[in-house]
Amino acid sequence: MAEPLPATLTEGRVSTQLKSLALPLVWGLMATMSLNAIETFFIAQLGREPLAALSFTFPIIMVLTSLAIGLGAGTSSAVARAIGEGDSSKARRLATDAMSLTFIISASVCLLGWLTLEPLFLALGAPAELIPLIRCYMSIWYFSAPCLMVPMVCLSALRAMGMSQVQGYLMGGAALVNVLLDPVLIFGLLGAPALGLQGAALATLITRALMLVIALYILRVRLHMVINPFIPWQKLKTSWRAIVEVGLPAMAANVIIPFASAIVVAMVAAYGTDAVAALGIATRIEPLALIVFYALSGVVGPFFGQNLGAGKVERLQDALRVLTQFCLGFGLLLAIILWLLGAEIAQLFGGHDEVVTIAALYLWIVPVSYGAYGLIMSVNAAFNGMGNPWPAMLISAGRVLYVYLPLAWMGQQLWGMKGIFIATAVANIALGIWAWLWLKRHIYQSIALAES
Length: 452
Prior knowledge:
With 452 residues, the chain is mainly α. It contains 15 helices and no strands. The longest helix is centred in the N-terminal third of the chain and has 37 residues.
């Protein structure tokens, strides 16, 4: 009989616990984001056209990644609350059924993307001459996507157990393998053919397939978290409903962001290939700056889920205080660093003056809002972890649909491309304040309900 799953996140000092949980993810995410930046550097050596082609793929990649993040949020929330309630059997059932659901969704979406590749990217504003380059990359990348999405959901189950260090190790190892394969397959080293963009996608496919095998081995053989996936439809439907109740709104909230990015790419495309390439560089540098916030949001959900399941709602109030102080302080530090070094960092990705100038402009304006954006990520993760995903969805939708896109259009009319970047910063700050107030009120209501 499998051992019970202990609720490890319901005791101890909140700040210390969040730090110890987030730190392994910081290193894992740093490795992954560094891989993205290094891969961009490799592609930049092939010329501006391959770099621009890669930039056009970012919104689609973000959509599929967002689907996995949403499913992972649903899995983490449901599993963490089950662990907090002391129901280990339910936690294992949810983790297993989440993986089968993720495989079905990821395979279906990626097949659709593969079949509609050309009209989709033309609709995003990609010039016809870049379509062959985009096809070289995405026709292989789509096949690797299920090997990305299923492990992401596997690892979200580990985070729900408070085992973020395992995810950190896996992410770091995968990034190392990928960065070693990239130059070999892109430039044709060690006797391999020079495949360019196609080589980058092939390296990703090989790495992700390996990561999938290892993640399943850990969960099934070492931790006994994966059990028999073949169960009666009624039981499977119950598990899927518990996951989708949080996962579907979380997916929608995450997908809204890349859709907005796709619109922005189309807006920036009006300024030429150099502008799109510059945006691609800036949006590869930005996640590196936000690594700590991504890691923190990755553990906030399980923390809130376990403590809510265990009835320890007073710890949620303490967690909000810790998150607020950290996000605003660290965000200010990031803004100062990128104000001073943004142009030099952008220069590392290519020597084209116009590309560097535009990328540096983005890194000078937008980082002032990073602290607020980090707070948005943590607040959304907290709501998802508590099994209440609709505030997170509304915050994300409000940021993009009601604030960011209208401001981006107005900013473009007034100040051109600079106005789009200003709109990004304003939207982050406004929604950061709204998100913080909403979570604070929700926690107070939860405490009052527990005391009544």
